[in-house]
Amino acid sequence: MFGVVGHSLVIVLITSTPLRHFPSVGIPICDLPVRHRHYIDSLKFHSLQLPDPNKNCREKETEKKMILTGIEDEDKWLAEGIASIQHNAFYMHRALEANSLRDALKCSALMLSELRTSKLSPHKYYDLYMRAFDELRKLEMFFKDESKHGVSIVDLYELVQHAGNILPRLYLLCTVGSVYIKSKEAPAKDVLKDLVEMCHSVQHPIRGLFLRSYLAQVSRDKLLDLGSEYEGAEDTVMDAVEFVLQNFTEMNKLWVRMQHQGPVRVKEKLEKERSELCDLVGKNLHVLSQIEGVNLEIYRDTVLPSVLEQAVNCKDELAQYYLLDCIIQVFPDEYHLQTLETLLGACPQLQPTVDVKTVLSRLMARLSNYAASSADALPEFLQVEAFAKLSSAIGKVIETQVDMPIVGAVALYVSLLSFTLHVHPERLDYVDQVLGACVKKLSGKPKVEDIRAKKQIVALLSAPLEKYNDIVTALTLSNYPHVMDCLDDETNKVMAMIIIQSAMKNKTCISTADKVEVLFELIKGLIKDLDETAKDELDEEDFKEEQNSVARLIHMLYNDDPEEMLKIFRAVRKHIMAGGSQRLPFTVPPLVFSALRLVRKLQGQDGNVVGEEPATPKKIFQLLNETIEALSSISSPELALRLYLQCAEAANDCDLESVAYEFFTWAFILYEEEVADSKAQVTALHLIIGALQRMHVFGVENRDTLTHKATGHSAKLLKKPDQCRAVYACSHLFWVDQDGIKDGERVLLCLKRALRIANAAQQIASATRGCSGPVTLFVEILNKYLYFFEKGNPQITSAAIQGLIELITNEMQSDSTTPDPVSDAFLASTIRYIQFQKQKGGVMGEKFGPIKV
Questions:
Q1: Which residues are CB-neighbours of 284 under 8 A, at least 6 positions away?
Q2: What does the pLDDT look like over 660-671, one tens digit per residue?
Q3: What's the distance, Cα to Cα, between the start and end of the chain in Å?
Q4: From what superkingdom does this record's organism come (predicted)?
Q5: Helices marked H in 304-427
Q6: Which residue has the higher pLDDT, 375 or 830?
Q7: Cβ(113)–Cβ(165) under 8 Å?
């Protein structure tokens, strides 16, 4: 007990125990607490004076100024410290060379006194420490050789304790202690115990941490381990464990106390400095993990509880996060698996601000890698019920940390799902359970707006797709759609695109109507119009890409069973018909062609078909008619007309005349009522003529009606050249070799009518521009004449062809005709063809013979 009376320091020693001797050595050591013993030792060398009452205030002011001064002053203090160490080290080296123990101890103590500074940040202090550490290595080599200094290691151990300052004394004591243990003149456990207790004397956080780090460094190869040369008869691995744990505990306390060493205004700077020293504390745990004798039993019963106790009780955010992360990183995975409950039990007890999600994520990542590294490890996961424990722990952490942001909670579920997919990929119920827990957390809250949280949810939903490479598996997860419902519209569309891309990448075939229902519910963000306010914000290129992806997906829906395929068609139709005017032009065509593929498969199967809801071509055509009709009502008549013609050709292949006629009727109605643009009319009319030419199912009456309609509309086109081309195209409707339709008179009638229109076009050009237009139309008509002449149309004679050639020649020679290289080349090519046919000989040569060119 210490007391101050007047100006004298009175020391009263109260002890009921006698002095004890260091085991087997004979060095008297007082049974008083260590801090008292060192204080008494220091009295041997220093005069007793009262402390200056203003000294602490001045030191605090100095420290404050030091914190605010900046890097330049620290660099100056560091340079001065290094210079002092080098100066004293120089004289220490001379003393070592002269084998002068006294001078060596004196110089080394002066050198180590530089480590007493409080002016340096941890980073700078580390530089200073390493300089001294290197010199201590040389001093240790000197201590080992007793022949040089002539003092026994026992006496040397006592001698260094007479150093004037406590910090140099303990550095020297640790250095000599290392040699002392190697000499085996005392049990290693007793020396280590004495050293770790004496280090209590230094309570300054930075100085204490580096001192204990030095102790851990010099003792790590002298710990009592299995097969260690320092292992005695009564020594066990537990002695080494207790030593390291004791050192770790004290270092952690010093480290935590650092946060209170400066003013509040520099708290951020202090926390950064503390984070720089975390490895000093963690080094102890690394040493423990390297002790071979630390088996699962010792780790479970002693090491882990002690470390977790320190982590929880320190109530420091930085320390708790680092210590748990350090435990996870340094100890074997199988230990974590067998002590999972204990480790996870500490997580809810941590401070609310601790980044538990990162700690647990790293734990689950390590366990996942452990499971992947060995198939033999999987039974262990089942035995310890790893998934249930992790799931329960995550739930408790989220429940305990009420202020945890959504992104943190979802990140935990992402890690748990990743763990589940790696360790238990076959357990879809586990996967669905994780998704369900996430839904529970997100339910009752507005749509997620935080960008990071949305990315985590997308990662959560993408994980099963990446693992199973099969969208069908994801469709069986009941909670999958519920998680998507928590996303805002934009992110929902992003996730829908990921789902479609996964299906296309893996060429997944969705083959049942139920799965199609679930799938289209998942991608509803792409197939339904957003609200009116969001419509205007759509990016055109992105929108087209999205809708084209949906179109490609529709082509991947297939089932060999016609009835099931019809159900799929109806399910898709129900969803896409709600898409609105912007989406239908993209989504209806693939649906129509998918249905037509089914129609051709059922070709000829109409009438008595077995089944509850038999799939027949007529029934499908009825649905197609209703579907295409929706396009015509949203200002897409040209597309609807094309689809009607496609359906008409499919009906023709199925020999359904009435159905084909109905589709042509709708095509003409669209042409007459909806197609107003002149260019679009020309294109539509040529499509109708081409499709009608390929029809073989029509009877005479229906065919005449449709061809009459086509030729009538051809003559009513706005521009004369368009009229001419459409009319001569109609000539093909009256001469179809495959169907035996050969009406030569009507072919000739169409061609003559085309000539009159071409002549009228020339006259109009002459009247408006003062010169005739090119003769291209006449050359085109000449080629039609040659075509039907070769086909054997008796109404097309060589005389008619000759007259047409002369007409074209005269027109080209006329002064009023505009020269046109394209027309000239076209005519020259046609003339060469006629010459080729004449020179060919045979029947065709005789036929072309009368024509003179």
A1: 216, 244, 245, 247, 248, 251
A2: 999 999 999 999
A3: 137
A4: Eukaryota
A5: 304-314, 317-330, 333-338, 340-346, 356-373, 378-384, 386-400, 406-423
A6: 830
A7: yes
CA-to-CA distance for 2 and 10, rounded, in angstroms?
A: 7
Element (H, E) at 800: helix 798-813
Contact in structure between 241 and 294 (CB atoms under 8 Å): yes
d(CA 576, CA 557): 14
pLDDT digits (tens, 9 = 90+) for 202-249: 999 999 999 999 999 999 888 877 777 776 655 688 989 999 999 999
> Residues 174, 178, 180, CA angle at the centre, nearest 5°?
110
CA angle, corner 792, sides to 790 and 794, nearest 5? 125
Is pTM beyond 0.90? Reply is no
Query: What span, in angstroms and rounded, lies between the C-alpha atoms of 286 and 273?
Result: 22
Closest CA to 582 of 632, 528, 520: 528
CA dihedral angle for residue 524, residue 528, residue 532, residue 534, rounded to 10 degrees = 50
Which one-letter DSSP state was computed for residue 221?
G
- 159, burial (CB in 10 Å: exposed 0-12, middle 13-18, buried 19+): middle
Question: Residue 5's beta-bridge partner residues?
Answer: 8
Unique residue bearing structure tokens 């280590």: 192
How many Å apart are CA 140 and CA 179, to the nearest integer?
A: 7
Instruction: Give the DSSP letter of residue 50.
Output: P
- Shortest CA distance to 125 belongs to which of 65, 56, 68, 77? 77
Rounded CA gap, 649 and 691, in Å? 7
Residues in the chain: 853
E strand or H helix at 10: strand 8-11
Q: Quick count: other Cβ atoms within 10 Å of Cβ 634?
A: 17
According to DSSP, the β-strands at 741-742 and 735-736 are antiparallel
